[in-house]
Structure formats: C-alpha cells, structure tokens
Amino acid sequence: MTMTSRRVLLIEPPFYRLFDEHYSLCRYPLSLAYLAASVAAHTDWQVRCYNSDFAGVGLPFSVRHLSGAGHRRYLACLADPGASIWREVEGVLREQAPAVVGISLKSATLAAGRMLARIAKRLNPDCLVLAGGPHPTAAPQQVLAGDDFDLCVVGEGEHTLVELLRRLQKGEDVSGVPGVAAKGRPITPRQLAADLDELPRPGDWARTVLLDHERYPAKALGHLMATRGCPQRCTYCGSHNIWGRRPRYRSPGHVVSELLAMQAAVTERVHFDDDTFGIEPGYLRGLCRAIADSCPGLGWSCETHVRLITEPNLESMQRAGCQTIQLGIESGSERILRSVRKGFGVADAREACRMVKRRGMRLEVFIMAGFPQETEETLRETKALVQELECDKVIFSLFTPHPGTADHRICLERGLLPPGYDFSLHHHQSPGNYFSPGVAPALFRELVDELEQLVQTQRDQTQSGS
Predict the structure, then answer these.
(1) Assign residue 131 a region: left if phi > 0, alpha if psi is -120 to 50, beta otherwise?
(2) How far is CA 308 from CA 239, 344, 346, in A?
(3) What is the pLDDT of residue 268?
(4) What is the pLDDT of residue 466?
(5) Which among 185, 186, 181, 183 is positioned nearest to 136, based on CA atoms?
(6) Distance of alpha carbon 156 from the chain centroid
(7) Which of 7, 181, 228, 290 has a CA 20 to 30 Å removed from the CA of 332?
(8) CA 349/CA 354 separation, integer angstroms
(9) Could you tell me which of 300, 217, 227 has the C-alpha nearest to residue 259?
(10) Alpha helices of 174-243 — where are they, by DSSP H?
(11) Cα 131 to Cα 157: distance, rounded to the nearest angstrom
(12) Distance in angstroms (rounded) separating the CA atoms of residues 38 and 198
C-alpha cells in the first residue's frame, strides 16, 4: 500500500458528549498525545489529534444522570448516524482529509469508534483505519471483525505507529510490523520502551498537533506520567496488557523538565496519570526532592495505593506540592477486597484515608460495586464505608468486565456474559451492568441506586460548600 498523502489523524471517540451536550472530556488524552509527539518527532507525516469528546469546559458529571436519562441519550446517539456529534466528526474528517486514521478505543467506546471508522471509510474508502488502546490490545480479532478497522496497534504504541508510517511511506507491507494485529494473522510482539526518557514530551508538540488547542484551558494540558507499569494484580484491571507489570521510570530530571514547561505555560496544577504513583519508595523520594527543588509553587495530584500511604511518603509528596491523593479502595467488604486482590484490608483503607486528611490534603476515593462475588451484605458494607469515610470526593463505578482481565475470564466461566455481549452498552455507570448472581436483580438495582444517590448527595453538598 502506497500513500499519496502523509496526513494522519488520531481521534479520541466521543463518550461523555453522548450523555449530555454539556458534558466534555476537558483534557488532551495522554495516550494520543504521546503517539502524536512521536509521529511529529520521528517522521515527516503531518499528524493531528482530535478529541471529539471535548466541548469546552463542561458541566460536572452527575452519576445519576449517567445511569439514567444520560444513558438513554447515549444509546440514542449511538443508534443515530445523523446525530449532531457524527456530523461534527464528518466535518473534521473532511477538513483534515487524512490518509491514516487512528482511533483510541476503550471497551465502552467501541461502538462510537466503529461509527468514526465508518464515517472515515465512507469519505475515503482508501484511507487506512487503525484501532489502538486498551480494547484492541486485549481483543484485536474482535475489533477487526467486519470491515470497520484495517489493523490494530497492540500494546504500547509509540514505536509501532512510527514504524508503520515509515513503511507506508515506502509502500511496504505493514501487516507484519511488530505490535500490529491484522485480521487472521498472528501478532509479532513488540518490546516495551526500555528508556522512557527517549519518548518525546507531548507538551512540546501540543500547540501544533492538537485541534482547537486554543480552546483548552491550561489544566487540560497538565497531565503527565512518571512511570509506566504496575505490579499490582487487581482482577478487574487490564492496564498491564499495555504497560506491563514491571515498573519503568522516567528520570526525575526528565520529569522536572516537563513540569517546568507546564509551569511556563501557566499551568499551576498538574496530575500524574501513573496507574500507581510512587511504587518504589526510593524513586518517589528522589522525584519529590527534584520537584520541590525545581518547581516551587506547583501543585499536583496523583493516584496511588493504600499500602503506599506512609508518613515518610506523605511528607515527601506534600513538601513537593502534592495537594490531592486518589485511592482505589473499591469495596467496604474484606471478602471482596481479598477476592479482587487489592492487597489491603478495610482497616488499612480507613487508616490511609485518615493519614491523608490529617495533613490537610484533598482525598478522592474510587468505589466500585457489582463484582461477581458480591452479596447483599458486601454491598451494604460498601455503602457503610462510603458513609463513614471523610473524603472530598467519591468516584463511583459499577463493575464492568473488560477483556484481558481476570474478572472477565471469571464472568465467561460462570456464564455471566450473554451471547453477543456488547461492550459498548456496559460502561461504568450503565444500568445494564449486572454480574452479581449472588444478589437478586431487583435488589441489586435497589442497592446500587442507594449508593449512587449517596455519592451524588455527597458531591452536591461538597460543591455547595455545606
């Protein structure tokens, strides 16, 4: 295949905008940002990024809306090729006229991604449409079923996409590129990037590659990663499929150089997107010293593990400007925490939360309900913990079995996924999520409604300052 054009468009599919016209993913998706920077730095292709889920600074998300009226609007948009969001996408594709389209897919955005692919193919049947991200990495042949996508980029994609584009430019076959999945062909694995410092910094290229860059607030561009890879083995998480389990680290100096560039762009607060910030205490202390020394006045947030909440770690982080810590607590049940391999108990979670709050730091916790092992008792234990914790925000999700995870295999083995299971219908607030046979369906929905209402009430009270 020889390309007469060297234009590539990387797209984040719409998701939140399908629930409400005033919702928006107000950030530069970091996965696409890294890919675009690598293409811009190492090829002569013209690359652009289009976050089709961005509509300016949107309204705060309502859990109740996402699971109620918003979900109905979401389904209606997916079923209507003439919806305004798809007309917007078509306009961007016409204007950019890419020879290659890359679409980043999570399980919940699979249907939206297919819609984007169909629009791209309708406008230009000769364009090459790639799928990448968590879902294509875990289930490439499922994504390639049908005619929507030509190839999948599996796993960490920077080096794979650069090599693919270079081969296209030479008119060479790309189906055998390491890290690329083609329909009905075995995949040649690609090694993970050995030196993260060699990857181009996304922010260096954002102004030239991100469509509508001028509309994004500074905080939307304030995301970065210090590490890739997480050694935790949570049964519901599939990030290891992309990043691996062995942590890889950027040097503190390289991280600080990116933070300084963000500060210069009037970004006063940034967020580390690491799956688990501070995995290795020595690295954590070194990084925090470097941030404290070089980036005074910079505030930041991160997600970390309950077991990593220690006084020495908190002291280092707070001195370096950490203001907000997110903890994936997930459940108030000891039995559930053991079964999903969180590596801590309820008492550990409580103490970690108390330690964070004693320092005056903002605390946000992730809670999930609906695991296959749930019972009425475990759900009520989770509700009781949510009521008890003195945190600033609860981020509530319904369990969703993503491919490539241990829990997805459990659901398959127990017959909890019906034939023709559509991943796009099962996002983390979907009212159709029910994978807990130990709880009667009606009672399950009643208990979930109580949890959703509790979380929404707490969020409303926090936003009103009461």
Answers:
(1) beta
(2) 19, 11, 15
(3) 82
(4) 44
(5) 181
(6) 14
(7) 228
(8) 9
(9) 300
(10) 206-209, 240-243
(11) 11
(12) 10
What is the three-class DSSP state of 321? coil
Taking the C-alpha atoms of residue 226 and residue 271, their distance in angstroms, rounded to an integer, is: 10
* Cβ within 8 Å of residue 94, ≥6 positions away: 123
Cβ atoms 16, 25 nearer than 8 A: yes
**275, 245 in Cβ contact below 8 A?**
no
pLDDT in tens, 333-351: 999 999 999 999 999 999 9
CB atoms within 10 A of CB 419: 4
- Residues 369/449, Cβ–Cβ less than 8 Å: no
Determine the pLDDT at residue 185: 87
Least Cα distance to 67 among 430, 380, 393 occurs for 430
Residues of the chain with pLDDT under 50: 466
What number of other Cβ atoms are within 10 A of residue 293's Cβ?
A: 11
Written as one string, the DSSP assignment of 2-42 is: --S--EEEEEEPPSHHHH-TT----S--HHHHHHHHHHHHH
Q: In residues, how long is the chain?
A: 466
Q: Which two tokens stand for residue 428?
A: 């983390």
pLDDT value, residue 463? 66
Which tokens is 440 given? 């009667």
Per-residue confidence (pLDDT) for residue 4, from 0 to 100: 65
**Angle 69-79/110-123 helices, nearest 10 degrees?**
30
Kindly state the helix (H) or strand (E) to which residue 420 belongs, with its residue range: none
Is residue 192 within 8 Å of 159, Cβ to Cβ?
no
- Distance (Å, whole) CA 141 – CA 271: 34
Which H/E stretch holds residue 383?
A: helix 376-388
Q: What is the largest CA-CA distance in the chain?
A: 63
The answer to whether 272 and 302 are in contact (CB under 8 A) is yes
Q: Strand 151-153 relative to strand 180-182: parallel, antiparallel, unpaired?
A: antiparallel
Place of tokens 């970004």: 267
Strand partners, 63: none
| Cα-based torsion angle of the residue sequence 113, 119, 125, 126 in order, rounded to the nearest 10 degrees | -50
**300: β partners:** 270, 322
Amino acid at 181: A
Burial class from Cβ neighbours inside 10 Å (0-12, 13-18, 19+) for residue 311 reads exposed
pLDDT tens column, 389-446? 989 999 999 999 999 999 999 999 999 998 888 888 889 999 999 999 999 999 999 9
Structure tokens that stand for 466 in this block: 């009461």
Indicate the burial class of 286 (C-beta count within 10 angstroms; 0-12, 13-18, 19 or more).
Answer: middle
Q: How far apart are CA 385 and CA 389, in angstroms?
A: 6
Burial of 170 (0-12, 13-18, 19+ CB in 10 A): exposed
Q: Tell me whether strands 227-228 and 248-249 are parallel, antiparallel or unpaired.
A: antiparallel
